[in-house]
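pasting for the record
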Amino acid sequence: MSGSESESTGPTAGGTPDDHGTLYVVGIGPGLPDHMTAKAKRVIESADVVIASSLYQEFLRDDGTVPSEEATDEDGIATRDDGFEQEIVRSTMGRQIELARAAFDYVREGKDVAHVSGGDPSVYGKSDLIFKMAEEDDATDVPIGIVPGLTAALGGAANVGAPLCNDFCTVSLSDKWRGWDEIEEKLRAAAVSDFVIVLYNCWRNYEKAVEIVREERTDDAYVAIVNDAGREDAGRNGESQFVTTLGEAADHDDRVSGMGTSLIIGNHETETWRNDDRTYLVTPRGGRDVDDF
């Protein structure tokens, strides 16, 4: 606990009271230890308060990053073997504003807070909400740190080879915060610009998105459907990847299993590479030959 041991309550040179803790928004990637950065693990282990969903708590407990359920009392106070206590707070989609404000209060009490996000907190994660709430609540006294994590675009790309070695973009298909007309405009622009496109939130509107891209791109463009990248069997549906074409992608809705699904749509240069076991996707960097490297 970094802030509570200080006796002074006056502001530091940067304007932050020196008895405050820090609010860290921590990306844990897929959630399993192999794909979590050392810094993310260290920040969560040392935090006084950990805010995480039930699924992410499960991952962090299995890894030993936070204490087990048996070591956690009914008030959410978890005690490690060395005696260090952490408060474990369950987050849900419906409590994000409430928990952001609670995190500010914890920090003002001198506690370090790890607000856990899957993937990277700044790629369709929690970072923007924290800053928006800090602005709305005039929480300029609260130090905020972002700890990056492995996002689905990168994890999924690694599972299917090297599809993102040239220019690419990500587009979320969730129309919760923006209208479909805007999403369609971005999809069309990305397709026309020949970006490799990574689609997030494919549980919403994925067939519509595929049809829009088909209007601007040939049906034989390669597509990878990736589920729970980096989570092995620990995710909601299990880790898998499947290579198809843009013309046939909408026929495989049985492989689009939920929030953990991403689609990687190749451009005109994306090609396949095969060995005895699998088919990989490769997008050459500017179409160069090996001799150009």
